[in-house]
Amino acid sequence: MKLLRIIPPFGCAIALAWLSALPPLHAKTTPASRTILTSGVKEVPQRNFAVCLVMAPTLPELYFRNSRGDYQRLQIDNTSFNNWNVIPALPSLDVFNKTETLESSIIDAVTKKVVVTPAKVTYNPVASWTLPPGTADIRKLFYYDSGGKVLEYNMLAVADHAAFQVRVINLLTQPATICFDDNKQLLAAQAETIITAARAPEQVFRFQYSVEIPAAAPFVAATKKLRFHSPQQRLTTIIGYCPVMELDESGKEMVVKSYAIDAIRFFEELDKLPKPLRAQ
Domains in the chain, please, with CATH? Predict the structure, then answer.
């Protein structure tokens, strides 16, 4: 995947508001397999899952239960969807954080013997993420709204659109006018569309978008010249809010001043995407 616009993380953690009722298990992390065993008998399909934080700060270290029921660290990417996880194809994914206590020892005041408390690893339920049904590849994007609240958006497989088409996702709270050369379209808030942008490899096309701002001049993004290098490439464009940083009054720390309209674009190669997973 090649990113044309990279928004770095800003060091502040997302406060997760969802709690899961699942009791934690204590198990070592093991690699994911292609089927999940329920009660050691029933096989459940798997799916590929990626998390991207392009428009949001960093998530804490999280874990999920893999096909063996063990806890496995969730691979999260701050700038793309390159890190894929294999998860059970269930209606939701429960995620956990991990706490560890070190081994300690004290001398009992009465017996004068050394009492050892062993090290302990605990997985605590943090959130339950609702996922679209099926076994298709799924991507979860965390992003900001105009007031800085962190929201989620589920994206299905990139292969859903054909060669030389562009998928555009509008995560703003208002409609955006998108334009590929002479092809202009009004895209509603929280909606997505697919547009044919070219007819052949290396054909240059122009992309621009604009947003009407109440009681202010319209926001008009600069025109970008883009091209597909092969029919195997797919392009996704996401319009959303990016935090604007500035120094605080002390001049020592960067703080969020506001949230400005911005966009990211990334190309992907179909033959480099993970293969679909099914129960064996």
Answer: 2-130 (no CATH), 160-272 (2.60.40)
